[in-house]
Recover the amino acids of this structure.
């Protein structure tokens, strides 16, 4: 896993809708700071779908891996338009970046 490669993937695929820094603003998607260990649909100040609010899982490396493979399959009804990352290495790198950058 490479957080450096994950940063590139984030910039290419996620940055247009999400921020990661503490105090970062919500965009089309929520700010992801504090992501690991948080529950779905709980970030203050962001309007989540009922699907995200009621999913009730805690974000871990494992749940992110499943989610990032196919977000709409994992949380049917999510408004996230991202199609997912099919390559395991890309998901691993992105997750490594998220773990590091969202603390």
């Amino acid at each position: 896993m490479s957080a450096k490669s994950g940063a590139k993937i984030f910039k290419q695929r996620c940055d247009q809708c999400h921020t990661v820094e503490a105090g970062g603003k919500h965009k089309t998607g929520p700010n992801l700071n504090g992501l690991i260990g948080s529950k779905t649909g709980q970030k203050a100040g962001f309007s989540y779908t009922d699907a995200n609010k009621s999913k009730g899982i805690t974000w871990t490396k494992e749940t992110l891996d499943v989610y990032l493979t196919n977000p709409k399959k994992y949380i049917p009804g999510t408004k996230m338009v991202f199609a997912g990352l099919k390559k395991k290495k890309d998901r691993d790198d992105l997750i490594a970046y998220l773990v590091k950058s969202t603390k």
